[in-house]
Amino acid sequence: MQEAVMMPSLWLPIVLSAVVVFIGSSIVWMVLKYENADWKPIPNEDQFLEAVRKLNLPAPGQYVFPHMMGSADAQAAVKKMESGPTGVLLVRKPMKWSMAPMLVKAFVFYLVVSFFTAYVASHALARGADYLKVFQVAGAAAFMGYGLGVFIDAIWWGRTWTSAFKTAFSGLIYGCLTAGTFGWLWPR
Question: Which position has the higher pLDDT, 139 or 95?
Answer without folding.
Answer: 139
